[in-house]
Amino acid sequence: MAVAALKTAAKGAKSSRRTATREERRQQLIAATIKCISKKGIGSTTLGDVAQEAGLSQGIVNLHFASKENLFNETLQFLAEDYKAQFDSTLEKAGPEAAEKLLALMEMDLKPSVCDRQKLAVWFAFWGEVKSVPTYQKICEAYDRGYDDAINALCQAIIDDGNYKSISAQTVTDALSSMTDGLWLSYLVSPKGFDRDVAMDAVYSYLRAVFPEHYE
Amino acid sequence: MAVAALKTAAKGAKSSRRTATREERRQQLIAATIKCISKKGIGSTTLGDVAQEAGLSQGIVNLHFASKENLFNETLQFLAEDYKAQFDSTLEKAGPEAAEKLLALMEMDLKPSVCDRQKLAVWFAFWGEVKSVPTYQKICEAYDRGYDDAINALCQAIIDDGNYKSISAQTVTDALSSMTDGLWLSYLVSPKGFDRDVAMDAVYSYLRAVFPEHYE
DNA sequence: AATATGAATGAATACTCATTCATTTTGTGG
DNA sequence: CCACAAAATGAATGAGTATTCATTCATATT
C-alpha cells in the first residue's frame, strides 16, 4: 500500500524493498543508534528511538540484536572498526618515510570524517561508561593497544633515523595520542571555538619541537 | 533505635545526628552521587542508589534537590568548583616565575587528588552527555575558558621572557590542555598501563621541546 | 497459482524508577 | 516538658521502556 511504502522509503532504507537481509538491517540499526546517541545521549536513547530513527517497528532491535546491551556493544565495535579502517588505510597510503606516515595519522585524526562532532559525541558517550561497563573497556583497550604499537614503531624509526638523544619513542607516542583525544574533547565541549588548523598547529608544534630534523 | 543509628553512622554521615543541615545533606548526597556514577555509570545511577549509598531514604534526593536533573547539574558544578579550587591554589602556591607556575599546573593535573580514576569516570560520564545536555556543556565551557585564559597568559609570559620566535601562546596552551585530557582518558581506559611519571614525561617532553631555555 | 520462509509488525507484558505525600521522628524555642 | 517546625521516611503512584510473541506480509521456490 502506498502509505506503507512511502513511510518505509522516507527513512534510512536504501531500497524500497520492505524486507532487507539480516546484515543490511543490522547496519541500518547501528547507524540509527549512532544518530540517536549523538542526539539524545546514551542514557536517554531507547529502543523505540532507534526503531523510529530507522523507520522500522518497535520490536525490530530485539529481532536483530536480541538485546539493547548487544546493540550497544556492536555499535561500539562498529565505531572501532570504522576508525581502524581509516587508520590502516592512512598508514598504507602515506609516503614511505616514517615521518610522513606519522604526520598523515595525526592529520587523519583531525579531518572531518574522523573529527566529526556526531561521531565524537558517541565515542565520548561510550568512554563515559568505560569504568562501569567492562565490555566497553575491553573493546577500547584492545584497539588502543594496536594504535599505540603502530605509532610507537613510527616514532622509534624516526628516532633511529635522526640524531635524537634523550627522547623515548613511548613518550612521544603518549604525548601525541593523548593530544588528539584532548583536542576531540575540546571540539565536543566548545565547537564554536574549535578550528582544525589551529588544532593541527598544536600537534605540529610538538612534532617540530621533538623531531626538528624531520618536520622543518 | 540501635539498628537505625548504626546504619546511619556506618555510611557517610559525619555526625551521629539523625538530622543535618540542608547544606550538609546536599554535600553528602553529591558525594554519594559521585560514588554511584563512578561505580554504575551515569545512565544506570538511580535516585534509589544515591539514597542507599548515603544511607538515607528513597525520597531524600527530591527533598533536597527537587529533581534528579538538578542533582546531576549540581554534582557537575561541584566537580568543576573542586577542580577550580585546586587550580587556583596551585597557581598561588607555585613559585613566582611563569615557567614554575605552568609546570606546577601540569603536575597538578596528574597528581592523585585530581587524576583519580573515580573522579575521572564521573568527569567522562558528564562529557559523554555534553552534546545532548546543554546545561553540562555550558558549565564545562565556562570553566574551561578560565583555565585556557590562565594558561595562555603563562605561556605568553614565558614566550616574552625567553627568545622564542614562531610559536604562539595559544598553540602551546591548546597542546598542553588537550594532552592532560587525553592522558586522563588513557588512565580511564587502561588503568593497568598507566604510570603518572611516564605521563608526566610526555608533558615534560613538550615543555622542554618548546621552551628549552626554561625547562632544561 | 500455491506454498514455504523468514522479515517485520505492534499490541501486550513485566518491570524499573522518579516523584509524591501521608506519616513519623527529631530538634528547638517558649 | 510541650508544641511546633523542620527533617526524614518509605510505601504508593504512574510514566516510561525493554522484551515477548501471535500475527501479517513480502519474496522466493515449486
Question: What does this protein structure show overall?
Answer:
2 copies of one chain form a homodimer. In chain A, helix 6 packs antiparallel against helix 10 (about 195-210) and helix 8 crosses helix 9 (about 170-190). Chain A has 10 helices and no strands. Chain A has helices at about 1-10, 20-40, 45-55, 60-65, 70-95, 100-110, 115-125, 135-160, 170-190, 195-210. The N and C termini of chain A lie far apart (about 65 Å). Chain A has about 220 residues and is mostly helical. Chains A and B meet through helix 2, helix 7, helix 8, helix 9 and helix 10 of A and helix 2, helix 7, helix 8, helix 9 and helix 10 of B. Chain A binds a DNA duplex (30 and 30 nucleotides) through helix 4.
Task: Based on the model shown, name its key terms.
216 residues; elongated; homodimer; mainly alpha; DNA-binding; disordered N terminus; 10 helices
- Percentage of residues assigned to helices of chain A: over 70%
Largest sheet of chain A: none
Radius of gyration of chain A: 21 Å
**Overall mean pLDDT of chain A:** 91
Task: Tell me the span between the first and last alpha carbons of chain A.
Answer: 65 Å
| % residues in beta strands of chain A | under 5%
Total strands of chain A: 0
Structural class of chain A: mainly alpha
Largest interface: A-B, 52 and 52 residues
Order of helices and strands of chain A: HHHHHHHHHH
